[in-house]
C-alpha cells in the first residue's frame, strides 16, 4: 500500500524511521564517498553518527536553513570530486524538514536539486511526507517522484504505535530486506504492527490538516509573545513550530508545569509538535501557557 501511495515498485516495513534511513544509505551510498544532506536533517544530526558507522560514508552537511537544499551547493559538492575531493554517491533530502518548522519541499525545488546531481541517487527522508501531501495538495507519489527511495513513519502524525516504511525499485527493496536483517530489524511479529500501519495509511492522513491548523495557532502566539526573535508564523504550514525564545530552558520548564510537553532540538531551540492527541482544548492550554511565559496578552 505504501509503495502505491508513493509511486514506487515495492516497499518494506521496518521498526523505525532511523532504520529506514540507515538501510537506504547502506544500499545507495558507497563506503569512502560523500553523502550530501542538509546540516539539520535527521540523518545528519539525530542518528548518532550512524551513517558513518553503518555505511562508512562521509556526510557533507549543506545549508538547509529554509528546509530545502540549494542546487548550487549540491552542484558544487558534486563538481569538487574533480578537485581531489571525495566522490558524491548519494543525496538525501528531508520532506517535510523537521527543524525548519516542518517545511515541505515544492516539486520544482526538488527537481532543481535532483538535476544538479545528475546520475546520483536520491533518498527522501519523508518521515512526515503525508504532512507535505496535505499541506501542498500534491500527491505523495508526485512529491517522491524524483527520489530513488523514500521512507515514511507510520507513527508520528499517522498514529501507528510503531513502524516506518521504505519504498523504491523492486530489486533494491529485495536487498533492503537483507540489510534490515543485518541491522536486527527482521521481526516475526511484523504482521500485528503492520496492521496498525495499514490503518495509519488508510485513515490517518486525512486528519493531518487538523494538526497543521493547530500548529498555526501556536505559531501565531509565539510570534506575538516574542516579536524580537523574528519568528515568522507563516513558515509553519504543517505540524511543527521551531523557535528560539530568550530563555528556552525556562520556557520548557514553565510549559511542563502547565502540562504542555515541548522539547529542545538544539541549544536554545524549542520545538512544539501537534498530533492526534493534542485537541483544540490542548492547544488553547498551550497558547495560554505561552502567553504567560511571554508575558503577552
Ligand atoms: C525527519 C525525521 N526522520 C527520521 C526520523 C526517525 O524516526 P524514528 O524515531 O522512528 O527512528 C525522525 C524522528 O523524529 C524524523 O523527524
Write the layout of secondary structure elements.
Blueprint: H1 2-6, E1 10-14, H2 17-28, E2 34-38, H3 42-45, H4 50-55, E3 58-62, H5 71-79, E4 88-94, H6 107-115, E5 122-125, H7 129-136, H8 140-143, E6 149-153, E7 164-168, H9 170-182, H10 190-203, H11 208-225, E8 240-243, H12 248-257, E9 263-266, E10 269-273, H13 280-294
Parallel strand pairs: 2-3, 2-4, 4-5, 5-6
Antiparallel strand pairs: 1-7, 6-7, 8-10, 9-10
Helix pairs in contact: 2-9, 5-6, 11-13
The structure holds pyridoxal-5'-phosphate.
Description:
There is one protein chain. This protein has helices at 2-6, 17-28, 42-45, 50-55, 71-79, 107-115, 129-136, 140-143, 170-182, 190-203, 208-225, 248-257, 280-294; strands at residues 10-14, 34-38, 58-62, 88-94, 122-125, 149-153, 164-168, 240-243, 263-266, 269-273. It is α/β, with parallel strands linked by helices. The strands form two sheets. A seven-stranded mixed β-sheet has the order 1-7-6-5-4-2-3, with helices on both faces. α11 (208-225) runs parallel beside α13 (280-294). It is globular. The site of pyridoxal-5'-phosphate (PLP) has 11 residues, from α2.
Amino acid at each position: 500500500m505504501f509503495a502505491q501511495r508513493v509511486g514506487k515498485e515495492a516497499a518494506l516495513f521496518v521498526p523505525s524511521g532511523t532504520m529506514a534511513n540507515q538501510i537506504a544509505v547502506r544500499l545507495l551510498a558507497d563506503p569512502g564517498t560523500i553523502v550530501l544532506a542538509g546540516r539539520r536533517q535527521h540523518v545528519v544530526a539525530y542518528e548518532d553518527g550512524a551513517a558513518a558507522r553503518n555505511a562508512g560514508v562521509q556526510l557533507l552537511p549543506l545549508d538547509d536553513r529554509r528546509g530545502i537544499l540549494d542546487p548550487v551547493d549540491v552542484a558544487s559538492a558534486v563538481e569538487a570530486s574533480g578537485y581531489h575531493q571525495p566522490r558524491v554517491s548519494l543525496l538525501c533530502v528531508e520532506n517535510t524538514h523537521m527543524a525548519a518548522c516542518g517545511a515541505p519541499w515544492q516539486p520544482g525545488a526538488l527537481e532543481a536539486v535532483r538535476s544538479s546531481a545528475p546520475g546520483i541517487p536520491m533518498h527522501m527522508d519523508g518521515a512526515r511526507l503525508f504532512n507535505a501531501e496535505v499541506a501542498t495538495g500534491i500527491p505523495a507519489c508526485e512529491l517522491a517522484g524524483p527520489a530513488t527511495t523514500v521512507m515514511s513513519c507510520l507513527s508520528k502524525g499517522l498514529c501507528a504505535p510503531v513502524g516506518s516504511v521504505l519504498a523504491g525499485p523492486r530489486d533494491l527493496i529485495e536487498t533492503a530486506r537483507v540489510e534490515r536483517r543485518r541491522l536486527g530489524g527482521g521481526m516475526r511479529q511484523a504482521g500485528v504492527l503492520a496492521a496498525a500501519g495499514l490503518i495509519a495509511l488508510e485513515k490517518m492522513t486525512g486528519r493531518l490538516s487538523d494538526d497543521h491548523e493547530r500548529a498555526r495557532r501556536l505559531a501565531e502566539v509565539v510570534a506575538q509573545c516574542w516579536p524580537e526573535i523574528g519568528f515568522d508564523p507563516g513558515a509553519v504550514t504543517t505540524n511543527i513550530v521551531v523557535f528560539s525564545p530568550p530563555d528556552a530552558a525556562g520556557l520548557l520548564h514553565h510549559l511542563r508545569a502547565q502540562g504542555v510537553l515541548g522539547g529542545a532540538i538544539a541549544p536554545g531551540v524549542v520545538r512544539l509538535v501537534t498530533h492526534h492527541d493534542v485537541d483544540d482544548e490542548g492547544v488553547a492550554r498551550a497558547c495560554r501557557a505561552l502567553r504567560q511565559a511571554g508575558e503577552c496578552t
